[in-house]
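Researcher: Re-running this chain for the archive, since the previous output was lost when a drive failed. Same request as before.
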Amino acid sequence: MIDGVPCLALTRYKWNVSKAVDVGCGTGVATVQLAAMFPTAKVYGLDLSPIPQAVKSMAPPNVAWAEGNILDVDQQSPADDLMSREIFTPANLDYIFGRMLFLGINDWTRYFSTAYQSLKPGGIIEHQDLDWKFYRVGTGECLSDQWEWHKAVIAGAEQTGLSSHAGSKAAGAMEAVGLEVLSVQVYEFSFVPSSKTPKSQAMGRYVQAKLIPQYPDLLRKILGARITGEELERLTKECLHDISCEEGIYQKYIVTIARK
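Model: Regenerated structure tokens:
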């Protein structure tokens, strides 16, 4: 999806990296990849949930794992945990990587402010995230503005402080805390493979096999406090139909790179 690499900054910019963190690392796969790219650096994988033991066992020795939420970091009164003691300390990090954080961050100003404070001068942050709209391949026509379930999801997300534009609004949020935006690149995050966009084939197959089966749980998480029972079931069915309704349907996946 992004030129066959997990992160773009490392292919575009040259700087010394001795300490890096993968925020919201999930399964930890990207953390392991980063550690392999920086064999002499200390690379942290941070997530709210425990990392699978299978990934831990394959991680190189320069990886350390931490559980926690970056939004809980208080550099004026740090807690006694790995996240606050070793990772997000002032001017400590050379590289911060975050991917698909739109369901976990409900205060982007605090997130990027903590990142800014934790980066060394010249340090880089790379943010990869989606905008929650769906488009027709080859035209850029937005399909999702008329979908009832989509309107409900956007309203539910906004009520909990989540952003439906976590990708496209990242640059502005970075600049607001003092970061210098170096580049913004937009990719197509394909939900269905399309012959019109050959590069979408692998991504579309991955989404169909791995991500779409998770959508019922995603809708329950976002809508469950307001919509339940038959209504939630109906909206879920409409969602699963709409996001696979034609080949090449995609969301915009935006990679923003900035420097302190």
